[in-house]
UniProtKB/TrEMBL annotation:
This is Glutamate-1-semialdehyde 2,1-aminomutase. Keywords: Cytoplasm, Isomerase, Porphyrin biosynthesis, Pyridoxal phosphate. One of its GO terms (cellular component) is cytoplasm. The keyword Isomerase applies. It comes from the Bacteria. The gene is hemL. NCBIfam families: hemL, PRK00062.1.
Length: 430
């Protein structure tokens, strides 16, 4: 494959955009690539770069593209919405329709506020929890990523883990002194901390399915314990379902595991590929937000009509009978195929999957938390990433990211991917 145009664009971008990219993980630095792919267009589960190369896409714009790219119904809805005007900075009925779809899908959400990104959703949810409880301290978990708000970068996953950045310069110590980060899936540790400090804790925020240290499912009973200790101490439980919401089930991880949080953060899928975020929960909490309540939060483009229409149409498609069953079948086929391929080549690898979110770690440990994920052989991951790319398979360029299957992937695409992995594993084993 030739990458001349991507290389040329990256040189130009490096001059005028920090690191040549508008979000760090895209630069593909950690896998040793000297440039990312510049993308021209995408269709279904295929993505096409600026040099005319085509790839089967398992990044799906980092999760939103669950229907695949350019779904005809979403494209049609967007054209219609655009014809009415791109933004009004005033309420539209589309905001009510998306709010209705979200509250119907996720019963713990009685009211929802739209924002423009997952970062805004989690940042606002934390402010609400602090405002409502009158407490400052928050608990998060190592390797979970909740966007780039100052207080949430402590021990974060995703790009922070990929680039090995310890938190971030520019975040004053005093901003993070109220953030406690605990090991994911360690119920005993949570109990211990909550027994000692529960009355000071405003909230526990968690990715109920962690997708930013690779993919790590919640251990049996872990989410139940979080619910129990927060209820006991009067703290709020926040599920950050920006990635897993509408992904692992129509009602998200809370439907899958049967736990009802106080506040839920959403993003990605509910915008159908347009910039969006949302946070919602029980009426008593949400009525605390301005202008109804005292906790301030605002946004010029919040509830943007294009994002609302792409989101509404996406959720309509997801609601169709059999959607998640079919996605589960495809994802199981892929994950089983990759597992067998690694076993055949005697590659040390550990696999996690929840529905259409999956992770392959180059370690012989079962990966249950960030410390386990960090035992992965990152050089082997880089070689795997590059090998797969050469064979036309587009994966996230980091061990600490999840992979996503979409409704547009067919058995044929999946079998092509497994065959590519067999060849790459065989090469890595030599
Ligand atoms: C679980 C989770 N929360 C929050 C975010 C932040 O979302 P955004 O990148 O839209 O700000 C992300 C992704 O970046 C995420 O995966
Ligand atoms: N893991 C991140 C979000 O889910 C990846 C997106 C980004 O940071 O650019």
């Amino acid at each position: 494959m030739k990458y001349e145009n991507s290389r040329k664009f990256f040189e130009q971008a490096m001059n005028i955009i920090p690191g040549g990219v508008n979000s760090p993980v895209r630069a593909c630095k950690s896998v040793g690539s000297d440039h990312p792919l510049f993308i021209n267009n995408a269709d279904g589960c295929m993505i096409f770069d600026a040099d005319g190369n085509s790839f089967i896409d398992y990044v799906g714009s980092w999760g939103p593209m669950i229907l695949g790219h350019r779904h005809p119904k979403v494209t049609e809805a967007l054209s219609f919405a655009l014809a009415q005007g791109a933004s009004f900075g005033a309420p539209t009925s589309a905001e009510i329709r998306l709010a209705q779809a979200v509250t119907e899908a996720v019963p713990s959400i009685e009211m929802v506020r739209m924002v423009n990104s997952g970062t805004e959703a989690t940042m606002s949810a934390i402010r609400l929890a602090r405002g409502f409880t009158g407490r400052d301290t928050i608990i998060k978990f190592d390797g979970c990523y909740h966007g780039h708000a100052d207080t949430l970068l402590v021990e974060a996953g995703s790009g922070v883990a990929t680039l090995g950045i310890p938190g971030s310069p520019g975040v004053p110590k005093s901003f993070v002194e109220h953030t406690l980060s605990l090991p994911y899936n360690d119920a005993d540790c949570v109990r211990e901390v909550m027994e000692k400090q529960g009355d000071k804790i405003a909230c526990i925020i968690v990715e109920p399915v962690a997708g930013n240290m690779g993919l790590v499912p919640p251990a049996h009973g872990f989410l139940e314990i979080l619910r129990e200790v927060t209820e006991k101490s009067g703290s709020l439980l926040i599920f950050d379902e920006v990635m897993c919401g509408f992904r692992v089930a129509y009602g998200g991880a809370q439907e899958l595991y049967g736990i009802s949080p106080d506040i839920t953060c959403l993003g990605k899928i509910i915008g159908g590929g347009l910039p969006v975020g949302a946070y919602g929960g029980k009426r008593e909490f949400m009525e605390y937000i301005a202008p109804q309540g005292p906790v301030y939060q605002a946004g010029t483009l919040s509830g943007n009509p294009l994002a609302m229409s792409a989101g509404i149409t996406t959720l309509e498609q997801l609601k169709k009978p059999g959607f998640y069953e079919s996605l589960e079948e495809k994802s199981a086929r892929l994950s089983e195929g990759l597992k067998k391929a690694a076993e055949k080549a005697e590659i040390k690898a550990s696999f996690n999957r929840v529905g259409s979110m999956m992770g392959l770690f180059f370690t012989d440990k079962d990966v249950k938390n960030f410390a386990d994920a960090k035992t992965s052989d990152l050089d082997l991951f880089s070689a795997y990433y590059k090998g797969m790319l050469q064979k036309g398979i587009y994966l996230a360029p980091s061990q600490f990211e999840a992979g996503f299957v979409s409704a547009a992937h067919t058995d044929e695409h999946i079998d092509t991917t497994i065959k590519a992995a067999e060849e790459v594993f065989a090469m890595l084993a030599r």
